[in-house]
């Protein structure tokens, strides 16, 4: 699986350490999951924006 290196602020690192302690999961696994979620959420938002843009263009073209 491809790997990505990230830099965290001291505050985010502390939160990640705390979450790792609470969940018993590795920090790297938690960080990877948060990155994955963020990418999927952003991709879904971008798809929705593209869909709405295409829909608006189609409507404008039909009204001409």
UniProtKB/TrEMBL annotation:
Protein name: Ribbon-helix-helix protein, CopG family
Organism, scientific name: Symploca sp. SIO1C4
């Amino acid at each position: 699986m491809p790997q990505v290196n990230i830099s965290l602020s001291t505050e985010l690192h502390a939160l990640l350490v705390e979450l790792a302690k609470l969940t018993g999961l590795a920090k790297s696994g938690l960080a990877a999951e948060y990155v994955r979620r963020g990418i999927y959420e952003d991709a879904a938002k971008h798809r929705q924006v593209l869909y709405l843009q295409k829909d608006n263009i189609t409507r404008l073209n039909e009204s001409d």
